[in-house]
Structures are given as structure tokens and as C-alpha cells.
Amino acid sequence: MKVLKRRNIVRLLLNLAFTGFILWVAILNNSGKEVAVVHIVFYNLLIFVPGWINIFYLLPKLVRHKRPARYAIYLLTFFFVGCLVVGQYLQWLYEHYKTNDLTAFTPLGITSSAPEFLSHVQYYFDAFPAVAIVMISLVIGYVVHEFLLKLKMEKEIANQQVQAELSLLKSQISPHFLFNMLNSLYALSLRKSDETPGVILQLSDILRYSLYETHERELGVLDEIAIIETYISIQKIRIPETVRISFNHKGISAVDRIAPMLMLPLVENAFKHGVDSTVGDSYVSAAIYKQNDRLIFTCENNYKESNESKMGGIGLHNIQKRLELIYPSRFQFKTEKSEGIFKVTLSILL
């Protein structure tokens, strides 16, 4: 209802502007002549009446009820009645001011010639073109306005759908991430490690980031790097010392921004499906750097061959969908599997 009300207000303002322009030109043309301004204003307003009835009543009714035949009948009726009324008033103006110069009363001074047998009612044919021109102009304005509104509404609906889908995808991240973090905390509690309180504090930082900071459209890349380092430090406590972990970043500045929770789930995926599934010599190697205007993130890990079908899962699909929604045509997302090695590469044009 608010959209419809706003639409009618905008249409009314546009029509008032158009009408005001015609009246201004009409009065300006009358400067120095004997025709009363009130007669000029009234005549030009009469020209607009059939057009106003059409765009404010008949066309909206046509759109709602889809009855073109009835619309055509009403339109022609109001048009011809309007021509008769305007023509009759024009006859009075001609007689009152003793002139047949149509331009003395309106800037829309286009006439049409009456057939010889109707020459005595020429004033109706003088009124006809102006009424037709105004009606056609208003219809064109109506159609263009409706088209632009339709484009705007479609864009708003598309944006709402994108935001709804992004919210859904983000809502899937937090429970999934929390589940894995609680597993790590549980493993530490079984060992009765003295480091458990510190890990809980680090875990609270990650949870705060995943629950609150991710509602922002973009965050600093340095913030994402900091949370990845916190996550890795937690993982190092619970995994064997033989696991090789490396995380490097360079060329990142405070002005570089990115959508949150795009890289952290990829690192988490490497630990969950890589380190946790292998025995012995495991490794995770991640890096973030800038190359020209592109942010590039890579993460590589080894995994157990029998666990290949589980690599990625819902996490990679989730990230792929978010990238498509947030960075359409601005990203590259590639995964590679080769002889027990899994590598993901993410490139985003900042």
C-alpha cells in the first residue's frame, strides 16, 4: 500500500509539473494581450481533464481488472465528451474576444480542418488536437513511469531475495562452526589441560566474531586474518606436534575489506577433513596475499584417500553460493584434488 501511495504521489507531482509548464507558457504568450488570465488557465485545465481521468482512473482500473474492451469504450467516451466541452468553451472565447486565433488561448495551438458541411462547428476541430496531444503525452508518461517503477520493484525484490539467501547461508555457518569448536574444547577437557581456560577465551573471541561481526557486509581483511590465527592456535593445542601448520600473509593493509567468514571456513575445512582424518604426517598450509587489485587466498592440506568423498561438503558449497551473491563476476574459486592433496584457491577483485 505504501508503494502504491508513493507511486500516486509521484505521478501527481509529475502531472502538476507538466500542467504548470503549459499554463506558464500560455500566460507568457498572452503577455500584452487582452485575454484574461483566468480564461487562459481555465481553458488549458479543461484540455487536461480527459487525460487526467484516463491516467488516474481508467488506466489503473484496466491494470487491475484487465478489461480492455470496457476501457476503450470509457476512454473514447471521455475523450469525445472532453472535446465537446473544450470546443464549446473555445466557441465562447472566440465570440467573447472576437478572434479565431487559437494561439491566443493556449500554446497547444494546433488545429484540424473541419469538413465543409461541419465548418460551422470548426471550434470543435480546433479543440480536438490539443486534447489528443495532452492525452497521448500523459499516457506516454504513465507507461514510462510504470516501466521504471517495475524495474525498481524487481531490483528491490531481487535484493531482498539475495539478502534472505545470504542470511540463510550465514545462519548455517555459525551452528556448524560452533559444533566443531565445541568438539575441540571437549578434547581438551578430556586431557584436563591447563590451557583450557585460555582456549575458552580464544573460543569466545571466535564465537563473537561468527555471531556478531558476520552481520556486517564487509570487514577488514586483517580482522579475518586475526581470527584465523586465533583458530589455528586453538587447533595446535589439540593436534599432534608432528602436524605441520603454516599460515602466511603479506601485502594486506587496513583499507582492504572483504565479506566475513569466507576464508576461516576453508581453514576449518582443512583441519576437519585433512588433519583429523589422517594419521602421521599431516599438514595444513594457508596463505593470504594481494596481487595487483586482487586478494588471493590459498589453503592446502593432505587427506586420507578413503575420506575423499567427504572433502568440502556443505562448507564449500555454502562459500561458493555466498561468493556468487556478493561478488558476481569478481571472484574465482577453485578446488583441486591430486594424490591425497586437497587445495582451494580463492581470488577476489577488491
How does this structure look, described?
The protein is of the alpha+beta class and 350 residues long. It has eight helices and seven strands. It has helices at 2-29, 37-65, 68-97, 122-191, 196-211, 221-238, 264-273, 313-326, and strands at 219-220, 244-250, 257-258, 283-291, 294-302, 331-338, 341-349. Helix 2 (37-65) crosses helix 4 (122-191) and helix 4 packs antiparallel against helix 8 (313-326). The longest helix is centred in the middle third of the chain and has 70 residues, at 122-191. The chain is rod-shaped and about 110 Å long. The relative contact order is 0.07. The model has no long low-confidence stretch (mean pLDDT 81).
Number of helices: 8
Mean pLDDT: 81
Find the count of extended strands (DSSP E, 2+ residues): 7
Largest sheet: number of strands, sense, barrel closure: 5 strands, mixed
Distance between the termini: 39 Å
Q: Encode the helix/strand succession as letters.
A: HHHHHEHEEHEEHEE
Shape category:
rod-shaped
Give the % helix: 55-70%
Rg over CA atoms:
36 Å
